[in-house]
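Handout, section B. The chain below has 259 residues.
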Amino acid sequence: MADPNNSNSNPNPNHYVTFGPDTNCTLAVCPVSFSVYQYRPSLPANSIFIALFGLALIIHVAQGMIWRTWVFTFAMFWGCVAELIGYGGRIMLWKNPFSFTGFLTQITVGGALSTETSGDSQPAIDTSIAGLSFQVFTLCVFIALALEYAWRYTRAKDARIDKSQLPRNFKIFVTFLSLAIILILVRCIYRIDELSEGYTGPLIRNEGLFIALEGVMVLAAAFCLNIAQPGPVFGWPSNTGHGSADISAPRAPKNEQNA
């Protein structure tokens, strides 16, 4: 098998290039085991992901227009579009597992970088791992800060006389936002492990794990963020207070403040 980490490597015994911008393999002349993934991506699975990410995208856009959460909607819009493009690339790989265009369509900046390195994709792999590692780091920092705030809030609440509860919509928001963060964290850790051995490791050739730990994790996170839309919790970006929830940190009673 041609080494996917060198697109200009000599090819299989029949003198076909199996990977890279000069690939000339097709299923008619090369076995699928010679392709970078060593399998044909599932057409039903990738079609379902495209349909469901498209649905999540439509819901996010509709919610953004209703609640005017433009920044959040902008991020979710492009996130869903990126997923749609990526799964479109996998369908291209189903048609031809040797399609370098399909391969580059599926992956992100790292894939683009590999076209600038004369076929040596190690810089692309390193870039991808660095980006994923940074995501894991920032998610862990965010989780630590959120837990610290929750702990301080609970302590302050226990110390006051008025022990009013948080609004139900805010609890739902926090629950599904937390679930989305955990799902993305699991996905990032999996992708780091997957890419740790480049394009020749066993994990990158396991479609079942990819579907479960990449596709399902990100899709579930996208729908969790439909539920954790900040608009219903924090209200319109105006002074109307429509749908907003009072989640300010609890204060000590007046007699304690004057003490």
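Note. Residues 43 and 234 are 40 Å apart (CA to CA). Compare this with the example in section A.
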